User: Fold this.
Amino acid sequence: MHRKHPISVVVYNHLFPNPRPEDPTSFSAHLSKNLVGEVRIETATFYGSLDTVEARYPGLNYSHPPHRKRLGRFPHHARLFQAFDELQLTETEIAGLCRWEGTLWARERYERDEGCKVEDTTGNEIGPWVDHRRQRQRPRQGDHIRVKTDIANHRPDEEMPDSDASDDCSDSEELESIGIPLNQRLIEAAARREQGVSVVMDPDYEKFLERAQQRGEIHTPTPPPSPMPPIPSFLHHPGAQAPPSC
Assistant:
């Protein structure tokens, strides 16, 4: 981009659009009053002393982001870099403007006049960077976490109650409901029958035999007609319980 005015004038007018009496009257005055002092402070802070050639000629590049970050801590340099960005100066324009103590221009002139190369020792003690992220992401053997999960298969038929268990429960309830009175009646009827007395079958016992035959629990041939069928042997004991009735 071709500019009608020198870069120093353009930058000064951008920094001081309405100069006050205490403001510098030109960019050169601003440089000597404000910028050079900040460069010296940064150089002394960074190198510690000016005993080495590198410290006397640090070669600060005003287009290099790390150098701009170092100098941007100072107020006048921060405003200067902001003006560079707002004016959209190119690196060539910045290099043509920044020709003072401590800049890259001063180092290059010293190297040309002395015929030597100023060694930049910044970062010499920093080793090559190694990316350890992949090593951390790679799991080591033995670090695996194993989770054992037991999966129970739910089947609908398990929710249905067992019919046999229900029948057993029902039979137990019926046995408890009949109790000893029926046993006593059956024992007395058996005793009278042995004495030759005609005894009518107990109605509760008759119902039980019918249910047992229907379930297939009693498999006996049809006996000849008699007033009362044989009494099961377990009923001869006074403490036994009779089978259930309907």
Remarks:
- The CA atoms of residues 190 and 230 lie 8 Å apart.
